[in-house]
């Protein structure tokens, strides 16, 4: 509930309120031991700013907010029999189908709420003007990286994705400041991805990352970051809703780039389609 409330109000928040919101999302257990004054001190804002924010998200008092937070954290601890978010071991196939669809739709709706479209437009321009693009992602994130690679190639943007971390580093060695790294990692803590970003930082190569909204290393090391919201628990390898939200971001990037230079892009897509037909 608290996370949903914060997400729903994201576009209405001031810079200071967003700092408080991010602190809450990333330090829920710690907050249970703090007073409102201590929390404000940790964030670098006044106690009154914390109280105003708590009221903004629907709580009359800081104590009331902490009671609700305690309940939500307890619910998380009790979800050990869940195999994926709201899916339980005894769910029927019908239950699973309904919940997967609902969870995916919710992830996309929540992600849409936090998109800053002016910031997104700037990212689109950076992708458009970059000389070469290296897409980095491991595991399930590699699927998302491959999807974006294919979409960008269709409209004649020089993009490459290698599953091998060694090949990623070899490609990185040939890149310069006119190029771009797009790093995809939901949790933002994948070591291979972090390694590529750190080396790109040293070379002065811009990095765009696509990660979860939670605080993470990949986002912190990136020049630009697009965030995805999803609620997934034990079976992270399936990453259903987060992967779908990331793929939707890929579609938005592809469609906006196509729209910007439509006549040329349309011909590129047609040419690709015609060449593929000849192979069949």
From TrEMBL:
GO biological process: carbohydrate derivative metabolic process
UniProt domain SIS: residue ranges: 123-263
A Pfam family assignment: SIS
GO-annotated molecular function: carbohydrate derivative binding; DNA binding; DNA-binding transcription factor activity
Keywords annotated in UniProt: DNA-binding, Transcription, Transcription regulation
Domain HTH rpiR-type: 1-76
Keyword Transcription: yes
CDD domains linked: SIS_RpiR
PANTHER family in UniProt: GLUCOKINASE (PTHR30514), HTH-TYPE TRANSCRIPTIONAL REGULATOR HEXR-RELATED (PTHR30514:SF1)
Protein name: MurR/RpiR family transcriptional regulator
Taxonomic path: Bacteria, Fusobacteriati, Fusobacteriota, Fusobacteriia, Fusobacteriales
């Amino acid at each position: 509930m608290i996370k949903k409330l914060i997400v729903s109000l994201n576009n209405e928040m001031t810079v200071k309120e967003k700092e408080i919101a991010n602190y809450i999302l990333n330090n829920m257990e710690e907050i249970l031991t703090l007073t409102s004054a201590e929390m404000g001190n940790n964030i670098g804002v006044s106690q009154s700013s914390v109280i105003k924010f708590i009221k903004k998200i629907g709580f009359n008092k800081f104590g009331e907010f902490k009671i609700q937070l305690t309940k939500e954290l307890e619910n998380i601890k009790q979800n050990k029999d869940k195999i994926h978010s709201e899916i339980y071991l005894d769910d029927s196939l019908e239950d699973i189908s309904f919940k997967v669809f609902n969870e995916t739709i919710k992830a996309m709706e929540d992600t849409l709420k936090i998109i800053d479209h002016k910031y997104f437009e700037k990212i689109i321009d950076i992708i458009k003007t970059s000389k070469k693009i290296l897409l980095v992602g491991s595991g399930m994130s590699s699927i998302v990286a491959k999807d974006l690679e294919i979409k960008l190639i269709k409209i004649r943007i020089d993009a490459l994705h290698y599953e091998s971390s060694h090949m990623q580093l070899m490609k990185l060695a040939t890149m310069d400041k006119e190029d771009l790294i797009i790093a995809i990692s939901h949790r933002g803590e994948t070591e291979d991805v972090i390694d590529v970003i750190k080396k790109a930082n040293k070379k002065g190569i811009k990095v765009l990352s696509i990660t979860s909204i939670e605080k993470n290393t990949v986002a912190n090391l990136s020049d630009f970051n697009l965030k995805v919201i999803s609620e997934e628990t034990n079976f992270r390898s399936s990453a259903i809703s987060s992967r779908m939200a990331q793929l939707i971001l890929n579609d938005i990037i592809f469609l906006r780039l196509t729209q910007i230079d439509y006549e040329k892009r349309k011909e590129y897509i047609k040419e690709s389609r015609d060449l593929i037909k000849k192979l069949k």
